[in-house]
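Lab meeting prep.
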Amino acid sequence: KYQSPIKGALKAAVKPVKELLASIFDSPHVQALVLIVLSIALIFVALFLIVRVMRAATSSRVESLVSRGLGQAAILSMFVGVVVTVMVQSSSITTSLLVPLAGAGVVTLAQAFPITIGANIGTTVTALLAALAATGENAMAGITIALVHLLFNVTATVLIFPIERVRELPLRAARWLGEVAVASRRWALIYVVVLFYGLPALFAAIDQYWQ
């Protein structure tokens, strides 16, 4: 049975909070609800502060690393994307450095592509860290999902990037979508809604139907 290495520290921190809530609320259900709300709030606050501190502490270093990775070998560029994303715990920060450079014509899409792939792999570290904090019977399920997240991104990279013809497919699609978005923001909005909301809803409906 898996035991989280963070379990002892969490127990010591949560114990006084539980005792305080028990002295205020008599109902165990109310105590549990307050703990859930506090936990969610602390997660958001912690993530916000981590990103803020890391962005302030490593902004110049991150920009330097990203600049060094541009134009280098693909493997090195991916490694830079992984390292930078692990440092700041956010792939959006890594890609947000590339977007204005690409928009200004300083960086080509082909140069930004491997760093973006590395950022997608690096962001799985956050899920792995969160999975290590899980305890109880469902701890292994959390770790399994985190590993699926990692293996999904790594497998996609292995299948797509090494073959030039296959690698060009997402690049061509990105260029075409960029041209469509520039011509009409409405089509860009429709694309986002259909791809990120419509397709998942469709697959969920199909899954429910076959069950």
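Slide two material, second protein:
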Amino acid sequence: MILFRYIVREILVATLAVAFTLLVIVISSRLVAYLSLAAAGNLSPGILASVIAYRIPGFLELILPLAFFVATLLALGRLYVDSEMTVMTACGISPRRVLLMTLVPALLVALIVAAISLYVSPYTKTRVSTLLASADSATGLDLLVAGRFRFIKEGAGRVTYVEQKQGDELLGVFVTDNPRRGFAESRQVVVLAERGRTEIDPETGDQFLVLENGTRYLGQPGALDFQVMDFQRMRQWLQPRDTTVVPRKRDTQPTAALLGSPDPVNIATLQWRVSLALLVLVSTVSAVALARTDHRRGRYGKLLPAFIVFLVYFLALNAARDAVGKERIDAVIGMWWVHGVFLLLGVALLFGGQWLRAWRVRRRGHAG
């Protein structure tokens, strides 16, 4: 029992460390991408934190299987390098028993991954799609960044600039509607105002830009017949941007909606969610086998071949998912054959040498 707790603690602590490191790397890369969109005015800064938070479960369902695989390699590899595994073997701890002890934390991680992939991740992905869709359909004023020009109505060439933003109030507003290409006689409208704000009509629900204490210029560039009008208050109707309807991705559908569905894509999606949990258990067998090392090679000696095995496993699952969705593979066979192949590979790596030596001994015994 003491040995069991020792191995489980080593693996779980390493899993938390690896998962946290990978999660920080992934979140940082996604945050940089979202910040670039926000800086360009294509994403509201107000939803950045929500989008990142809702994306974390989707990251974890992919990170945890890899993190546990690497943690098992590192934890057991250290036991081999420090000769602790040699002592365990001398005390009668067989590779089979080490595998059984390792499968206990693997089962725990697999259950966590299953809960995330089957229930949590579909909900959070739906929330992300909803947030991005609502931001896509906004008028664009909520995406304004002080000190930056922004196209509010790109089809008509409307450009808006504000010097400062104080909550919902805009200070130092500049708005221009450039003439459309191909219309030589069209005139340009330029509006300058001290302040502005958005206002929603309670009857129609239309949104207006209300400008105060400004000047409106109307005319054709290069001509002398400009019209100049000073105003104290002016309202401009804000036409919503063309809503980009975010399609309901298969990954956002609740697991209950996928059960019993005859659609091959739904079947592939359901099998993928289950496969992420199975990935933890099956890859553990290979990890226990590949963790064997010695002082000369060190605990990191087999990391590269182990990564290759895991990567091939993961890519094979992706390929099988695509094949099931396109009905190239029967749904009954589905993605299960990939798990079967890599389970046999792991068993062969772990027990193959032992079985081969036993076969040779029996063969020599029969020959003698």
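Talking points for slide two:
The two ends are 43 Å apart (CA to CA).
The chain has a mean pLDDT of 82.
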